[in-house]
Amino acid sequence: MTHVNSDHSIMPQVIISAQQLTQKIPLAQKQLSIFENLSFEIYRGEQVAITGRSGSGKSTLLGILATLDQASSGKLTVCGQSIAELNEEQRALVRLQHIGFVFQSFQLLPHLSTVENVMLPLRLQPNFNFAAAEQKALALLKKVGLEQQAQQTPKVLSGGEQQRVAIARALISNPQIIFADEPTGNLDAQTAQEIEQLLFQLNREFGTTLVLVTHDANLAQQCQRHFELVNGHCIEHGQGEG
User: Fold this and answer.
1) Any idea where the domains of the chain sit in the sequence?
2) What's the first-to-final CA gap in the chain, in angstroms?
3) Which residues belong to any copy of the ABC transporter domain (predicted)?
4) CA 63 centroid distance within chain
5) Mind spelling out the 3-state secondary structure of 90-159?
6) What average pLDDT does the chain have?
7) CA 46 to chain centre
8) What share of the chain is helix, strand, coil (3-state, %, to 5)?
9) Is 64 helix (H, G, I), strand (E, B) or coil?
10) Tell me, what's the pLDDT at 242?
11) What kind of fold does domain 46-72+99-237 have according to CATH?
């Protein structure tokens, strides 16, 4: 995605702005630096991959960008909100209103049906309406190809089917951003490819910004932008680079 609209020369909307983000963990005698002074912007509707070796801080960075954790220092703005100025309750509201999550381990509730799992984020909203939520959940299950499994529980679903449920759940609140942490990590190669295609298809269809952590170089290459964490620093690769 180019950052200048050639027709109107208008800069696209920044949806995440990180300035000098630093994360350090206090140890007995010193501090362990996970990363230091990371600065970048992510634009509305983009597909962004974050890669790096195990222990490089990928998931830590994702957690901070998703407002689940706080950086040691630096400034983070998400959907127009300066995150450091918010308390935990206010950060939770940002997540509820603007953010969806897809995890490697799916994180579905085993005692709930597929459609009930998809509806869960809406139950947290003050204006929850069961009939409307169920209708929306069923429509999303149809989009991910699981309308026939709406009343089944996760234990009878394959890994790929469970991840499709998780993607539908992530979309039900109409989030501006979806954060995906190793979304294909527990899947076989063919199923992983199907989930990748689904994520990108829904990203285009819903206009949702997609930020994902992955070990999969092929998945990272398919994203419009690719950040790699190396020795505590963020390197942005050009499109098509490994």
Assistant:
1) 46-72+99-237
2) 17
3) 16-242
4) 9
5) HHHHHHHHHEEEEECCCCCCCCCCHHHHHHHHHHCCCCCCHHHHHHHHHHHHHHCCCHHHCCCCHHHCCH
6) 91
7) 12
8) 35, 25, 35
9) helix
10) 44
11) Rossmann fold (3.40.50)
The whole-angstrom separation of Cα 115 and Cα 71 is 35
Q: From the CB of residue 202, how many other CB atoms can be counted at a distance below 10 Å?
A: 20
pLDDT single digits (tens) 47-61: 999 999 998 999 999
pLDDT tens for each residue of 210-224:
999 998 888 999 999
The whole-number average pLDDT for the span 142-153 is 95
DSSP 34-52: EEEEEEEEEETT-EEEEEE
Q: Give the tokens for residue 3.
A: 């950052």
Nearest Cα to Cα of residue 15 among 90, 86, 65? 65
Which DSSP state fits 55?
T
Size of the chain in residues: 242
In which residue are the tokens 């964490």 written?
Answer: 229
